[in-house]
Amino acid sequence: MNILLLGPPGAGKGTQGERVAERLGVPKVATGDVLRAAVREGTGMGLAAKGFMDRGALVPDDVILGIVKEALAAPAMSRGVVLDGVVRTVPQAEGLHRAFGDLGRSLDCVLLFEIADDEVVRRLGGRTVCEKCQTPYTGMAPGDPCPKPGCGGRLVRRKDDEPEAIRTRMRAYREQTEPVVAWYDASETQVVRVDAVGEMDEVTRRVLEALERCRPGGNAG
């Protein structure tokens, strides 16, 4: 199955995406990961992206989608893929649709993680990250030592994880993503909404149930 994850920051897409990919036996693709890999490996699209990054400019959609398309064409992706963070705007959704079409494939399902803004603020407000290795943590305070063996870094709270910054990010998410959801709702791709609030294992159970509704004969909703 080819699955796209949508949802606000802090909804748990990364964690649940890893679990879904493991359950299905397919790779999980995040935009940042394939971008860094393409730059590191010096692919044509990677070099194009590096040119923008070196100038401090945003990498445009066509380059990002080109990198994603290169990743999707890899033999390891032939059985399916879980896409996390690939689509945030309608033009990106349209570009991904074309990329799948060029590869003779299609997106089977969109999983939309739903969560209230206050819960996102609570989750992200309690998050810290190691200033050295960039590993994220919850339930640990700024200034604590990084628990990762051999790291030696200290934990900090990113400015974009402060409450007002989180609410600003959420407003931007709603403005950008609601049209994306409407675009997929109007297409032939199933959109299944998942309640992202609760214990991790419970949310995983809901996600797996949602995937069953994405299969032929299932009922999206």
Please describe the structure with a list of short key phrases separated by commas or semicolons.
221 residues; alpha/beta; 3-stranded antiparallel beta sheet
Q: Please give the count of helices.
A: 8
Topology as H/E string?
EHEHHHEHEHEEEHEH
The coarse overall form would be globular
Sequence stretches where pLDDT stays below 50 over 5 or more residues: 217-221
Which range does the strand content fall in? 5-15%
Q: What level of helicity do the residues show?
A: 40-55%
Structural class: alpha/beta
Mean pLDDT: 88
Radius of gyration: 18 Å
The major beta sheet can be summarized as: 5 strands, parallel
How far the N terminus sits from the C terminus, by CA atoms, comes to 18 Å
Structural summary, described in words:
The longest helix is centred in the C-terminal third of the chain and has 24 residues, at 163-186. The protein has helices at 13-24, 31-41, 44-54, 61-72, 90-102, 117-125, 163-186, 200-214; strands at residues 2-6, 28-30, 81-84, 109-114, 127-130, 136-138, 155-156, 190-195. By secondary structure, it is an alpha/beta fold. A 5-stranded parallel beta sheet has the order 2-3-1-4-8, with helices on both faces. A 3-stranded antiparallel beta sheet has the order 6-5-7. The two termini are 18 Å apart. The relative contact order is 0.17.
Strand and helix map with partners:
Layout: E1 2-6, H1 13-24, E2 28-30, H2 31-41, H3 44-54, H4 61-72, E3 81-84, H5 90-102, E4 109-114, H6 117-125, E5 127-130, E6 136-138, E7 155-156, H7 163-186, E8 190-195, H8 200-214
Parallel strand pairs: 1-3, 1-4, 2-3, 4-8
Antiparallel strand pairs: 5-6, 5-7
Helix pairs in contact: 2-3, 2-4, 3-4, 4-5, 6-7
